[in-house]
Amino acid sequence: MTKITQQLTKALDLRLVAVHLIDSTLCVDAYRYLSAVFLSLSAMMQLELPHINVLSKIDMVMDHTDDLSFSLDYYAGVSDLSQLLWTLQTTRHPMSEKFKEFNRLIAELIEDYGLVSFEPLDIQDKECALRVLGRCDTANGHIMNSEKVEDPSDPVSGVRLFQAGFSDAGEFLDEYLERYEERLQQR
């Protein structure tokens, strides 16, 4: 895959960005989530491209927040995996004791690199989709050409796309949660 992307970049003068989609329902199971984070790190290292990790179907996991061990911010930010390891040890999962050291080493490796974080994506939420697009455009350098993606009916769309590329994930998640609650109330 690396050779293919290098050839595309050279031959067609493209600016590529890798978008790695992880199903957000994997957050419900700590083992699957840790595997997904490790897979994201592996893809980042192997592809050698600007990389955006996306937690897709975030609206589905919002219906199961009681099943989550941590807040959505925790899963999106991939911060302090020692808390996740503690959760793995306190569950009665048959692999908890057997893979305790392996899980610790994987978590340590992920934290040592410090590269993995996720953008939440709810395809039904326009602002959410624009934020992921903004992150992609930031990663490959197209954000500097935001005036080219302006919507003629919306004179500030290029500015919003630029702001979405650089805004704080925590603030965005709060705004998303508010919009999600409004959609639930409208049902």
UniProtKB/TrEMBL annotation:
What single Pfam family name could you report for this chain, choosing any that match?
Answer: ATP_bind_1
Key word Cell division present in the record? Answer: no
InterPro entries for this protein: Gpn, P-loop_NTPase
Keywords, sorted A to Z = GTP-binding, Hydrolase, Nucleotide-binding
Q: Describe the function of this protein.
A: Small GTPase required for proper localization of RNA polymerase II and III (RNAPII and RNAPIII). May act at an RNAP assembly step prior to nuclear import.
Instruction: Please give the subunit comment from the record.
Output: Binds to RNA polymerase II (RNAPII).
Protein family according to the UniProt entry: Belongs to the GPN-loop GTPase family.
What's this protein's name?
GPN-loop GTPase 2
This chain's source organism reads Durusdinium trenchii
